[in-house]
């Protein structure tokens, strides 16, 4: 039994790693997709909505599918969709085809995101110990490794299609390793196939929405902020997100140990405080080391909040887990989509610094909600 649980954990880690690898592969493909189709930035931005739309329509469906068929089948189908769509994204020359494959890719991302988190909750419950941060940490590792490998392949002169196919061969190998120990049991649940988050699940979803908004802000606006608002050299613009991502990965890989020592919700409370302090340095800092220190604190502070929220999904009784996970994941994904756009709106009418102040204040809301959750659990 112990060996089986260990195998379940390793398989779950590999699936999170795969999701990170595939997402990073697409991130490197983007400029090639734009060049291949001959579209401008405005059209690319519109087409990217197809990816988000695909994820948003598949996430609510992932719960009922996982409930009926088990995590294993849903993860395999999602992986197959991504394996078919990803190489096509690297060579299609028609904007319409690009939109179609972005929609397909988004559907695969949405399905695997929900199914792997359902599996992670079950595996963590079976182990009776904190594992969620480590699982999410492997997603971050996959992102770093995927981006590094793709960049390395291209630097060696590989064609983008060849580099993408090499990455997907790695994904197929990893899927083969994890296939046997993915959870195949169906988990019937009562209730509607599509559920709106309510009660404590809604609170968990709002917290994920805010934290994903912070992540989206760091991804899409950190370089622009350092160059335009802080007048750093353009060659240094990428350092903000690099430091943020490294801190996120480090925080998640050590998060299970920290959570086991100090408690899950205390980690969220302290994480929210650290994130706000990080934003203070980013907003008020002038020197590069101060700004990068701020991004490091933001990454550390945010790193374990979302994993803890998924851990809490496994403990709540308001909604079945297979419905609660897609509900929370969908809310979080909306944060990734809406956050950067909202930042742009505020920056256009005021400044990027004021937009960052707004996001920092939302993290204060996360701090308050985490305290309320902690009191609620103690009262219960």
From TrEMBL:
Gene3D superfamilies: MFS general substrate transporter like domains
Superkingdom, taxonomy of origin: Bacteria
All residue ranges annotated as the Major facilitator superfamily (MFS) profile domain in the record: 1-378
Entry membrane topology: Multi-pass membrane protein
A single MF term (Gene Ontology): transmembrane transporter activity
Keyword terms: Membrane, Transmembrane, Transmembrane helix
GO annotation, cellular component aspect: membrane
CDD domains per UniProt: MFS_MosC_like
Location relative to the cell: Membrane
Keyword Transmembrane helix: yes
SUPFAM superfamilies to which the protein is assigned, alphabetical: MFS general substrate transporter
Transmembrane segments: 43-62, 74-92, 98-123, 135-154, 160-183, 195-214, 234-251, 263-283, 289-310, 322-346, 352-373
Database matches in InterPro entries: MFS, MFS_dom, MFS_trans_sf, MFS_Transporter
PANTHER family (alphabetical): BYPASS OF STOP CODON PROTEIN 6, INNER MEMBRANE PROTEIN YBJJ
Protein name: MFS transporter
Source organism of the structure: Commensalibacter intestini
